């Protein structure tokens, strides 16, 4: 399938899942806008490399997804947004009675509220273009919970709820909204939470991977960024035209348990 002529904005896409999604969309022919809160030469070089490799227009636009006005400015600066992938996210692991308030606020802002702002800014563009796809990268933690992740689980459940509302508000239009719920994917976000989890559970790294991270993933394998990118491309295909307001789990069986 070809996404030639479509422009995709992927938030939080200079690493991990967002980068993998942007690459799969570019492979399918979409022009892509990469984003994060930094403005380094390497961010722009990454976009240039993707553009050259896949023969699409690829740009990097700096915008901090913790700030509502910057979320909206990202979409305005993109100029066109046929495919919106809300992916930016952070994590912090702590018991709820010790959870730092600033971390709570940042996780809710970046992982959930940013999707409200970008969706609000992108829908008029999708309506004008007569086609649109909103894909929210939620999590297995949008459907289930784990201890020590109060802010993350709350934000991801919120994203799943918001996805359903956007789908209902666009149900009579050629626009769909869905959430992808990955299990564990070995990205910098997951790497970063291993030391905290080792401390919380008094475990070695290997024990954390086997007994904590993948304990609820029956396949005992991490999902890959390519698989998640492929799922986004599928949601942009004509086969997915009537798929809206739902979640697609890419979690090795986690939510079947
Ligand atoms: P990552 O840390 O590799 O990537 C996160 C991206 O978000 C980075 O590009 C980072 O620069 C960006 N980002 C962080 N704060 C930002 C801000 N304020 N403004 C703009 N961009 C910002 O993590 P990842 O694992 O690729 O996670 C991507 C998404 O997938 C997140 O929403 C995460 O919750 C979700 N997810 C990840 C996993 C997993 O196992 N890795 C599982 C389920 C869901």
Write the layout of secondary structure elements.
Blueprint: E1 7-10, H1 16-27, E2 31-36, H2 41-54, E3 58-62, H3 68-78, E4 83-86, H4 101-129, E5 132-137, H5 150-169, E6 175-182, H6 188-201, H7 205-213, H8 225-235, E7 247-250
Helix pairs in contact: 1-8, 3-4, 4-5, 6-7
Bound molecules: nicotinamide-adenine-dinucleotide.
Nicotinamide-adenine-dinucleotide (NAD) binds at residues 12-18, 36-37, 64-66, 87-90, 110-111, 137, 139, 182, 184-185, 187-190.
Give a concise summary:
The chain is α/β, with parallel strands linked by helices and 257 residues long. The protein folds into two domains: 7-185 and 223-256, Rossmann fold (3-Layer(aba) Sandwich), CATH 3.40.50; 186-222, no CATH class. It has eight helices and seven strands.
Question: How does this structure look, described?
Answer:
By secondary structure, the protein is an alpha/beta fold. The chain has two domains: 7-185 and 223-256, Rossmann fold, CATH 3.40.50.720; 186-222, no CATH class. Helices cover 47% and strands 14% of the residues. It has eight helices and seven strands; from the N terminus they run E-H-E-H-E-H-E-H-E-H-E-H-H-H-E. The protein has helices spanning 16-27, 41-54, 68-78, 101-129, 150-169, 188-201, 205-213, 225-235; strands at 7-10, 31-36, 58-62, 83-86, 132-137, 175-182, 247-250. The longest helix has 29 residues, at 101-129. It is globular, with a radius of gyration of 18 Å. The chain starts with 6 loop residues before the first strand and ends in a 7-residue tail after the last strand. The model has no long low-confidence stretch (mean pLDDT 97). Nicotinamide-adenine-dinucleotide is lined by residues 12-18, 36-37, 64-66, 87-90, 110-111, 137, 139, 182, 184-185, 187-190.
